Amino acid sequence: MAKDHFVIPVFVPHNGCPFQCIFCNQNQITGQADNPDPAAVDAQISTYLDTIGDRGRQVLVGFYGGSFTGIEQKKQAEYLSVVLPYMNTGKVQGVRISTRPDFIDDDVLDFLRLNGVTQIELGIQSFDDAVLLSAQRGYTSLLAQNASVLIRKRGFLLGHQFMIGLPGDSWDSLKRTVDISLKLQPDMIRIYPAVVVKDTPMERMSAYAPLTLDEAIRRTAYMLDRFLPHHITVLRVGLHPPQDNSSIVRGPYHPSFRHLVNVERWKIRIRSMLKCIGPQSIKEIYVNTAQACCIYEQKECDKAQIYPVEWIDPNNVRLVTSENQKILLSLNMRISN
Ligand code: SF4
């Protein structure tokens, strides 16, 4: 299937951020990347647009890398003014920024609206005050909730970014975080498992134990199972591969984290289905080609004939049991972009 949504990513680091979240290596953020020149951003957008062509596609420009609304407003305006001509000519349909919840208020939203921003992602991390405090995020859960309400009220698309497994985080706080997020109706989410990065306050916290990879997979699978039925777009699951592998000291980093989470979600469903059908085994499995790799990794399916096909929806799987019972499982497996 041809891709019809594109995000042109522009990296704008928040140099001189006045905070020190325990998981963040500010030197890495501020030392390795300079703010790009607006002319360079313009050239980047133009090159991307040439590459992707213009038939039936939606294009966003996404400003990532830090708290966009924390940088000098004159600089924000310079970046956004680069995108406006592309929006006016219909070549770009929107602008996405990411920022901290405490860098949002009515004036900020007025400015963003005027300058073409359509989507705002908030680095929430957790809606649990104890977790926010231990992570030294510098705002409360209530403030993050109010910022979310304001963004939605003003007609922007809302994104929530979560970091799971921070000090003090637990299944209970995770469930509360998901409950609160769902009430705020985000349009999109990202989930990052917390890892210990070199030269961060977290590296010096000897008592802190990051999640194991298995636990991070289980918690992320739980989150997807809560968010996806509400048609919330999952923009990202798992950390981007680091430029330097040695920058991650410990924690649940895996280059195929998203795939492992999907395997886990299949495992849960197939096991619960097998419980329902009793002593029968699975004889045949019809699965969308894109999801077949997850099925090959299921122990319960190793004796089954697996048929990767295009005609079955990626959210569904069709099973034939040893007693020829035909079962259509609706899994809501898709991770959309
Ligand atoms: S993660 Fe925290 S410390 Fe790092 S740039 Fe963002 S707000 Fe600043």
Detailed description of the structure:
It is a single chain. This protein is α/β, with parallel strands linked by helices. The protein folds into two domains: 5-255, TIM Barrel, CATH 3.20.20; 275-330, no CATH class. It has helices spanning 26-32, 38-52, 73-88, 106-114, 129-134, 141-153, 171-184, 213-227, 257-277, 292-296; strands at 5-11, 58-64, 94-99, 119-125, 157-164, 188-193, 196-197, 233-237, 248-250, 282-288, 305-309, 316-321, 326-330. Strands 1-2-3-4-5-6-8 form a seven-stranded parallel sheet. Strands 11-10-12-13 form a four-stranded mixed sheet. Strand 5 (157-164), helix 7 (171-184) and strand 6 (188-193) form a beta-alpha-beta unit. Helix 7 packs parallel to helix 8 (213-227) and helix 8 (213-227) crosses helix 9 (257-277). The chain is globular and about 70 Å long. The mean pLDDT is 91. Iron/sulfur cluster is lined by residues 14, 17, 19-21, 24, 26, 29, 66-67, 100.
